[in-house]
Amino acid sequence: MLINILVLLVILRLSFEKRIIESILRKQWQFLLTVQHVLFWLCFSFVTVYFYTYFVGFPNSLFRAGIALLINAAIYYLVFNYFVPAFYVTKKYALYIFYTMLVFVLVSLLRILTEPGIDGFSFIFIYTSQVVVILTASLLGISKHKFIIENDIKALEIVKKEADLNLIKSKINPHFLLNTLNNIYAAGNHTEDLQSQSVLNLSQLLQYTIYETAHQRISFATELQMIKSLTGLYQLKYDHQLDIQLDLPTSDWIEDVEIPPTVCFTLYENALKYAAIGHVPGAWIRVNANLDDKGLHFSLINSIAHPEQVRINDDYKGIGIATIRQLLNLEFGPEKYSLTTSIEKETHLATLIIQL
């Protein structure tokens, strides 16, 4: 009977598959553990009382069953609350085995010597019951600490992810904010209307920098609007003479799709920088975005100024590409996106595909 109970508990424990109890363990693992304790002791108490009632008889059966339950409860408490955390969790397996065996032998001998009327079957029952108690306490104790460690690791991973995201954003934000202020300064000699438009674009970019980049994700529409605002500042600075073409969608889906902030914006800044737009005659940039069955597509193709000063090979990624990859890895995982760059002669192409 006791062996059947142990098998039942093992089956019960294994039946709580990770996929089923993962959500419970985040907040309710203590409740689950309590249920397992209660189930075990209900079954164990029933078997103990049944054994002593059947083989000893009233009135001594209840007294002896109570003493046996108290002794086994003490063993259970000792193994669960001390031996497992002190020895097993700290990987002192030899000490764990030594102390559990020591308790098992000493308590078994004490019960055999002190309990009256011990026969062969009672002898087997005492040993078996204590083996069941020690194994069950060990199983539940190990499970408890395993779940605690897993939850702690997950919590630390979340904290680390948030810290990494904040660090990445802190590197990106000052870069394009300073660039924007320089553009406003350069537009200072233009008409008041142009300056008003510059202030509006700056206001949008400041709002983006201060508020939007604090979010884990923003709408794709917001990201595209920032690209338009930065383009407007550049065009104002150079009297709308820049060869920049934005083929950006205006459909409703851009409000529903969300991406990490600064991803597309930083790619666009790279294109502005390496095309030396406004400084090199004939410099140009083309931007395209669309959505299909494979996901969100965002691509830029631009001319490259002064190719002898740029490392033109397969390893060229441009400033900010490594940071963008870190951000995308943290948010989506490497299997959920593709960011490729290539150079042909004096043309640079960057393509981002995000699976949605």
UniProtKB/TrEMBL annotation:
Pfam families: His_kinase. The chain crosses the membrane at residues 31-55, 61-84, 96-114, 120-142. One of its GO terms (cellular component) is membrane. Keywords: Kinase, Membrane, Transferase, Transmembrane, Transmembrane helix. The keyword Membrane applies. The keyword Membrane applies. This is Histidine kinase. Residues 164-242 form the Signal transduction histidine kinase internal region domain. GO terms for molecular function: phosphorelay sensor kinase activity. It comes from the Bacteria. Signal peptide: none annotated. It comes from Pedobacter caeni. PANTHER family: SENSOR HISTIDINE KINASE YPDA. InterPro entries: Bact_2-comp_sensor_kinase, Sig_transdc_His_kin_internal.
